[in-house]
Amino acid sequence: MSAYSRGVQGLDSGQLLLICAAGLLTVAGIANTAAVGLAEPQVAIGFGALIAAGELARLTMPGNREVAPISTAAALGYALLLDVGGVPATHSALQVVAVLAVGMIAGGLPHLAVGRAPRLDAIARRLLSGSLLAFAFRPLADVLRPGPGQAWWVALGVMVVLVALMLAADVVIASMLRAEQVRTAFGVAIRDETRMAAPLGAAVAASGILLALASHSMDMTALLAFAAPLLVTQVAFRKYAGIRATYLQTIRALARVTEVGGYVEPGHSRRVSRLAVAIGRDLGMAEPELLELEYAALMHDIGQLSLSDPIPGGATVLTDQAQARRIAELGAEVIRKTGVLGRVAEIVRRQCDGLDEHPPTASRIIKAANAYDDLVSGSTDRDRAAAALERLRLDGGNEYDPEVVKAMANVVDRLAPVNRL
Amino acid sequence: MAALRELPWPAKVYFVLLLGAAGVLLARSASAYDRLDWSSLLVLALLFLVCESVPTLLSVRQAAVSVSFSAALAAVVLVGPQAAALVAATAVLSVRPGLPMVKRLFNGAQFAVCAYVAGLAFQWAGGRVGLPEMGDFPALILPYGAATAVFVGSNVVLTGLILALAEGVGKRQVPVRNVVQFLVSYCGYATFGLLIAGLWATVQSISAVLVLLPLFVARWAFGQYHAQQRSYEATIAALCQAVETKDYYTRGHCTRVSSASSMIAEEIGMGTERLTAIRYAGMLHDVGKLGVPTKVLQKEGTLTEEEFAAIQLHPMRGLEIVRGIDFLDEAFAGIMHHHEKYDGRGYPMGLAGMEIPEFARIIAVADAFDSMTSDRSYRKAKPISEAVAELHKGAGTQFDPAMVAAFVRALDREGWEPPPSVSAPADLALETTAKDHDDPTAPIQVVSER
Prior knowledge:
The complex is a heterodimer of chains A (421) and B (450). In chain A, 72% of the residues lie in helices and 2% in strands. Chain A contains 18 helices and four strands. Chain A has 421 residues and is an all-alpha fold. In chain A, helix 12 packs across helix 16 (361-376), helix 13 (287-298) crosses helix 16 (361-376) and helix 14 (321-336) runs antiparallel to helix 15. With 450 residues, chain B is mainly α. Chain B contains 18 helices and two strands. In chain B, strands 1-2 form a two-stranded parallel ribbon. In chain B, helix 1 packs antiparallel against helix 6 (137-167). Chain B is elongated and about 95 Å long. The chains are: A mainly alpha (421), B mainly alpha (450). Chains A and B meet through helix 9 and helix 10 of A and helix 6, helix 7, helix 8 and helix 13 of B.
């Protein structure tokens, strides 16, 4: 119960709207199917089972995006189904909705049983996009179904176009949710979501169409045979998502080394990185840049490890310029040794540059966020926050970028509850 | 297998024989070519070439499996053994840069023979060559399975033979796990061939695109995964070294403990996932050392109890730092308990014998060994033989005898590259410590204040 209520409170209005729409659709689909009866029950059960299996094997991609490729492909396949081994598939769009909903719920239950709460918004999105396709395609199914000996090109063409439209709609929905959730511009969200969704979307679309076509010549064996290519894809993406998550966690963890060593105040790196990422989002940075910014912000003090003894208090805004620059150089040197985080090293190296040296935006953000945290140091006192912002503003564009300081003023209020943790 | 003339003569004979066999086979099938569906053949050959040019889809290290195999099997079903051999022979033309002509010829001949034999097996098992009609499908599965088995079998034999002849029998011992992995991926790819053949009647070559698109996406994702993993390992190593910069003499310690730990783990037969975990645990085992004040690390002579307590705390500090990372729990246990002793006199918990987690028992051996074979400010590095003798001496009291034995076996086989000798840095007082908490031959002296 408590997990559920927390889940609902954590949702914003867009997500709630989406979940309500999906809920209504589910009720309508199941009620309608119950009233008119299930057309081709065996086929419905087969696809439903595949959807459930796909939901069971859902995975979380970078950026906390939940996907279930096998489930989505099966949903596409069922929506696009023309015939099974020569027997026409006559199910309605509402039956597709019902099968999707039941399959998704069945696949989500084992997760729930082991205490992993469902991401209602992600499930609702999958249900809605599958239903959209079904409503667009099912009415055309009778017209498009080729007779014996007829070519499949027209049906295939329509399938490809509709699936592409569906994926585009899905990206738009995802971007609207994302924009609201992390407060980024809609245009930036569209770019980020497209970049994330494109490879997996292509694989899922191909598999879904393949499934619909394969059911024609292979009967229900298609359900098993088709899963092979997508299973490989799923394994690959799971591994990729896993290492991305571990990477970020490791940097976050190792950034704390400076705190344990007494070089900086506890929580400093984490607070600076949170503030920096929020500012970067406000300034319209895209996800790959934000990731670099986050890494750089987490490790901005790593150069202090090369000093044999901590600077008392660790507040770099109060230490002299030469010392701060040396720390930045040393830190960049450490990061450059990885051989792969060259741009992150550059951001760290230039974090002390004045505006006349034209440092990259990420460096300006870190400089301002670092100074702010040194002045406020985790306190949630509003007066102190306002005073710190005022002090950065008074600098008048010598050290701190006025744009960055403006963005900081926008986000500081919003982050306040997080800082209290 | 490099240039032809570098091969031993049995390999040369075999190579020529195989090439001849493939040539005869293709020539004899010429009679079958005039009733062929050339457009299907062309599309299949193109498909085969594309797949052959992007091999190692699943990056099984020992054996580069390529998806081309599924295209050849689809050809077996669609156009029959003779034409399938022709399709497979196009492997000669694959656009892989740096592939020597000898290898190309060998691959082409080898694939042609395999495809032909697989085609015969397909027909022998009752398969009908040609476009599968609707409803044919269940009858197709058994012959297709036979064709797959024969293809894989002859492929393994033909390639295995040349490797054995070229490099000497028995030199390449492929572990069982890899063979299983290899066979599983083969079966997976076989399914793709079946899908391509099954869909050919409906949408012809588009079926290949639909089947292969997810595979190419998977390949891309695997590529991303490997790139991320390499980048991750480089990053973690660099950051651990940054932690070590505090002490001039222990540079590279984490990387060496990591590799020694994985040597032991491999020797006792750990699986891939646990091997990865212990590599990371070995790398991170001392991150907590940063919480120990520099003056304690640099203090000459005996330590007070309070100072020794600070040192004893470092595994807990390390755990505290890395706890947020999604590792196997075993990795955490390894970091937390790497200073426990087998007789129960270690820290932080005083665990003994098998109470000490396996990872920790491994890291303890690797840690002490690297410490002894590296220079320290108070002594020069010991030779490997002497360090091994120390490990044997500590087996049963400080170390788990099984782990010491495993490490010694691994050392004998793989050898060990001790770190280069370090000359004392100019600014000695700043950058060195007067003792090493990892060194079993120089235990830390503690005086009681009471």
